[in-house]
Write a structure and sequence with these properties.
This protein is an alpha+beta fold and about 130 residues long. The protein has helices at about 45-65, 85-95; strands at about 1-5, 20-25, 25-30, 70-80, 100-105, 115-125. The chain has a 6-stranded mixed sheet with strand order 1-2-3-6-4-5, with helices on one face. InterPro entries: RidA, RutC-like_sf, YjgF/YER057c/UK114.
């Protein structure tokens, strides 16, 4: 059975999708971009953008009763691989080194609202 996960502490979906779906112990989180849910505005600069995306992901995980320790897979989209090192340090600061998820990072030509980063995650309930 599928349950839709939605929180006001992360940006509302801007299309025909949910923030996340929970099914059979697995949480599938839609790609998050650096929108501040309190203001609805984009934050700018890769450092601020990465922090905002991670906060948005954390809010969805929390709503589902999970943490970053439950994340088994992350997909990171960057507009420029030149931002990789900065993004990677910030991303890692939110995670426990003993439970890093599997991950891929790819450079893409364009992201929604022309942001520099988008991250989606899959988490598993213990």
């Amino acid at each position: 059975m599928k349950k839709i996960i939605n929180t006001v502490n992360a940006p509302a979906a801007i299309g025909p999708y949910s923030q996340a779906n929970f099914a059979n112990g697995v949480l599938y989180i839609s790609g998050q971009i650096p929108v501040d849910p309190a203001t609805g505005k984009l934050v700018e600069g890769i450092e601020k953008e990465t922090h905002q995306v991670m906060k948005n992901l954390e809010a969805i995980l929390t709503e589902a009763g999970m943490t970053f320790k439950n994340v088994v897979k992350a997909t990171i989209f960057l507009k420029s691989m030149d931002d990789f090192a900065v993004m990677n340090d910030i991303y890692a600061s939110y995670l426990d080194a003993d439970s890093y998820p599997a991950r891929e990072t790819v450079q893409v030509s364009c992201l929604p609202k022309n942001v520099d980063i988008e991250i989606s995650m899959i988490a598993h309930q213990d």
